[in-house]
């Protein structure tokens, strides 16, 4: 018992030290970067506001949500706080400005996060289609994967093609160099990541898993995650030289050996430092690698930071 208590004391001390590290970093170097003062007039239509004729796909810093379809997961006030990573519905995330969705499914096409379940994936698709029906020039990256430990839903690729066929941007390396206008009226890059089923092939309506990469580390230590994100980002090629999307996730996750197991208070250790992260990527000379930037509990300030940096890229300020 004494050893366990000592371990917990040390863990809490480490978290406290790392939280202070980020506070000091933000105070000492700030959170300003090219475009940091930009605020879109309409977040629902922010790509349209940047002029789709001028914005290439590889110039965009895509605001994304981590574990996007967990707003109604589990049992409220019982299991939900341990797995909920977003409070907004899929439609309202998109309306707020998110353009990358991270969806995990199990065999029966229900959304899940580990062992906890949410609604049918139909709810996700309906939210996406509602948003697309209300906008004209917004492009979405929809990543759907089979959750670890589960089998792929049967014929899921056919389901996605049937549901989203009119909107799907087919798998093609040339997409990265095209402008938004050149892709319209197609609006969705759907990346399907099965565990056992065959990967989508080149030229198909769906994109294979290699087109969206990241370097996830499972930690609740905020400075450790922040620096890991910067390290791995710096190892990537510039966005103009690669033919895949690379994601950085401004999140930390609860750990079983720590008494704080609810997502929100844990992810709050790093969430306020999204703008600091962009500023650091600029100061370290790796801002040309930044592409997808995702978060838990997405908010307008996070979205504005991504759009602002995108605007600066388009205007040649970066």
From TrEMBL:
One of its GO terms (biological process) is lipid metabolic process. It comes from the Eukaryota. Its EC number is 3.1.4.11. InterPro entries: PI-PLC_domain (IPR051057), PLC-like_Pdiesterase_TIM-brl (IPR017946), PLipase_C_PInositol-sp_X_dom (IPR000909). GO terms for molecular function: phosphatidylinositol-4,5-bisphosphate phospholipase C activity. SMART domains: PLCXc. Keywords: Hydrolase. Residues 51-195 form the Phosphatidylinositol-specific phospholipase C X domain. This is Glycosylphosphatidylinositol-specific phospholipase C.
